Amino acid sequence: MNNYILDKLKADSLHLIHLSLNEEKIQHAGLRGRLRELLINNILTPWLPPHVLSGTGTIIEAENLKRESTQDDIILFDKTLAPPIFGSSNIKEGIFLYNSVLARVEVKSTVTRGFMKDFCKTSLELSKLKFSVGDGFTQNYFGTLNLFFAFKSDADSGNKNKNFELKRLVEVMKEIGIDPLSGIVSMVCIIGKGFWKIGLMPDNKTRTWQRLDSDVSADQITWFVGTVSNSCFREHILRQGRNPSQSLESGIGMYLDHPFIDIDINSL
Fold first, then answer.
1. Dist CA 250 CA 164 (whole Å)
2. N or C: which end of the chain has fewer CB within 10 A?
3. Residue among 189, 139, 143 nearest 169 (CA)
4. Do 66 and 56 form a contact (C-beta atoms < 8 A)?
């Protein structure tokens, strides 16, 4: 583990927390929420592949499958795969073709069970979109990664269950028909509560949920950034038809250790 990189990420994470607290002074809830989206955007952008950019707007596919949700907070898209459709060159808001969308980050000031359920419904919608491919295409790529980030929770601060947020996420996924281990929902980070992600068991085949083994808020943000960075590099390589294990391209998370604990979701 490189201490310089870790210390840099932690310093940025602490700065994010302080800026977020400052946004509490803004009375307009919508503006406060949008500013917090920009904070997450700013902390992620330096660690993305150079060809991956961020924007906000609507994700569409060639068959134009109707979506109930038409505004996505942060969209991480790969401009080498398909161009975005912006209304203005100065504003990163527009339409994003599904082929190019590597990940979507939904940001909330305060997470509630209802917000989690809305996020899962949107994630399920996106999982039904299809890539646009030519005749003879045989690859089977995984779709957009769906990530959830919140600055705080409505949960009782005295709750001793370290996996409470994962527990209610799993509950709402089951309610709307999502297999919690499908990968449709990939990560959830709630400052002060925890960071969880889909990972693999020691056999490198079986999926499991994993929790970062730290209760420190800055650590949770740091490893969220590192994991998103790794995921975007990996998805870029895969969608180009290349083998990630044979490439030197890697996210900043490759320079961090891996202090995650496997979670049995049936015991939550």
1. 32
2. N
3. 189
4. no
* Count of other CB atoms within 10 angstroms of residue 235: 24
Q: H-helix or E-strand containing 139?
A: none
Rounded Cα distance between 78 and 239, Å, is 10
Q: What is the pTM of this model?
A: 0.93
**Residue 143 tokens, joined:** 């779709």
Q: DSSP code of 112?
A: -
Instruction: Indicate the length of the chain as a whole number.
Output: 268
Sign for the pseudo-dihedral over CA of 154, 158, 160, 162:
positive
pLDDT in tens, the chain (268 residues): 568 999 999 999 999 998 888 877 777 777 667 777 878 888 999 999 999 999 888 898 876 655 655 566 899 999 999 998 887 776 678 889 999 999 999 999 899 999 999 999 999 999 999 888 877 777 777 889 999 999 999 987 767 789 999 999 999 999 999 999 999 999 999 999 999 999 998 888 899 999 999 999 999 999 999 999 999 999 999 998 899 989 999 999 999 998 999 999 999 8
Measured at the alpha carbon of residue 80, what is the angle toward residues 79 and 86, in degrees to the nearest 5? Answer: 25
State the alpha helices, DSSP H only, in 111-266. 113-127, 164-175, 217-239
Q: What angle do CA 156, 161, 165 make, to 5 degrees?
A: 70
Closest listed residue to residue 261, CA positions, set 211, 199, 214: 211
Which residues does residue 60 pair with via DSSP β-bridges, in sequence order?
97
- Helices 29-44/217-239 angle, 10° precision: 60
Give percent helix, percent strand, percent coil of the chain, each to the nearest 5.
40, 25, 35
